[in-house]
Amino acid sequence: MEAAAIAGQLHAMWASVAGSWREHADYVDVRAASVTARMLERSAPRPGERVLELACGAGGLAIAAAPLVAPHGEVVASDVAAEMTAIAADRAGALGLDNVRTCELELEHIEQPDASYDVVVCRDGLMFALDPAQALREMRRVLRPGGRLAVVVWGPRARNPWLAIVLDAVSAQLGVPVPPPDVPGPFALDDSGLLTHLLQSADLDEVVVDEISTPLHADSFDDWWSRTSALAGPLANLLSALPDEAARELRGRLLEAIRPYETASGLDFPGVNLLATGRRR
């Protein structure tokens, strides 16, 4: 498929799951709390600075950054889907955060002036870029000299079974790889060496890639599956369209696959993110 067609599909896909992201926004913030804290610690937004969040989803990271740059700084929460930025705007407004604004931006083509931000952050979005190298060059371009970048992606597939077993089970059920080979998936940047190379190739200095442990607990199979299937953008529409018999078969595959993670209190999965940071000289 041509890049433009794939990009269009990805944009439509994220727009279509915005309702689920609104419903589960508080859960996403709690799930990502340790990641958000590390990103803000490493990128260190300060009062009066401008922060750009890319692929903002429900806007939890932008909301967390807003008090750090107040009263005169600004946070811009952006996403490819207007349906997502509407959620971020509503949530920021409900909290009385008048220094958060939203707009629609693509990772590979950030329509903002050169050197216009002190901090750029992107949590769980870069791995879905069709051209992550170009996306990082764009992030560097909009940073001011001395500006800081913090990007988080999912770590190695084998160390994130809470999602890997879903991709494996759906692929087995359908008889085709999910996501398709020409579409970037959640583990597209799960190698720390590759991530380091990409940031350095974008002419960023002081590049560091760290791991963040992000285990996932769910009280039950249904608790885990309802949220995972609703929030997994590349899968959500596909799963909702499965015929009843196929959905039952998939559920059986998943029940078998999660057995190693069953505990007395529910399900306990290991998980890991990669946090990559850098600075524009």
Please describe what this structure looks like:
There is one protein chain. The chain is α/β, with parallel strands linked by helices and 281 residues long. It has one domain: Vaccinia Virus protein VP39 (Rossmann fold, 3-Layer(aba) Sandwich), CATH 3.40.50.150. It is 46% helix and 22% strand. It has helices spanning 3-16, 18-23, 25-31, 33-43, 60-69, 82-94, 132-142, 161-174, 192-201, 221-231, 233-240, 244-257; strands at 50-54, 74-79, 100-104, 117-123, 143-154, 205-213, 216-218, 262-263, 266-269, 272-279. Helix 8 (161-174) packs across helix 12 (244-257). The model has no long low-confidence stretch (mean pLDDT 95).
Describe the structure concisely for a colleague.
The chain has 281 residues and is of the alpha/beta class.
Secondary structure layout plus pairing:
Elements: H1 3-16, H2 18-23, H3 25-31, H4 33-43, E1 50-54, H5 60-69, E2 74-79, H6 82-94, E3 100-104, E4 117-123, H7 132-142, E5 143-154, H8 161-174, H9 192-201, E6 205-213, E7 216-218, H10 221-231, H11 233-240, H12 244-257, E8 262-263, E9 266-269, E10 272-279
Helix pairs in contact: 8-12
